[in-house]
Amino acid sequence: MPRVRSSIPGAPDGSRVLRLRWRPRSLLLVAVLGPLLAFWLLAPGAARACSCAGDPIEPDAVFVGTVVGEEGFVPSSLRARWALWTFFRISFEGHRYRVHAKTSWLGLNRPSVTIVTGFGSGDCGAPVEVGKSYLFRTTRGPDGDQRMGACGLRPEPVDLSTFDEAMVPLMPGGEIVHWPALPPRPNPWRWLPLAPGMVAVLSILGWVGVRRLRSRRVTESSTFI
Known about the structure:
The chain is 27% helix and 22% strand. By secondary structure, it is an alpha+beta fold. The protein has a domain at 61-178: CATH 2.40.50.120. The strands form 2 sheets. Strands 3-4-5-7-6 form a 5-stranded mixed barrel. The chain is flat and about 100 Å long.
């Protein structure tokens, strides 16, 4: 703890001046406990077993797609999520992935899908990696999104260039739908090659403007004389 002591009167108004001095023991304690506290909050929590008791889950949707992104920031540490909820009341339902479907066999009416799953730390979640493709078997959530997990709904990594669609059985009420490919994102640096030319044009225009201004001032000075 910091040690507070009062010095001899030295303020202009005659009041006593308070000085704050840290003991070496306090500095050592902060230096040791600070990294330990950060490690405790950010380190992954202890793994818990996922129980998949009950009847097998029948999927509401079956499709192959690519994970194009994840919504929001989700810390992987259970302790970090506990600390954020305790001090800031920030709760985390799980991972929310944006997936673009390539082929569907059941349950989809559009290629853009939002999939929700747990963290995978004993909550039977099945996290995936952004940029990779999977065979998804999901159930429909209360908000209209799709849910997946480790209990019969775990996604299977696939290679779209060699994936055989005939390996996926067509379930009753389903149909095979091939969705259009995801349009490529525009390159944010596509105008970079034009930068030198634009700089050169602006430099020439600036030089011409300065020359005209100087010549105008010279003309006005000679006319005045």
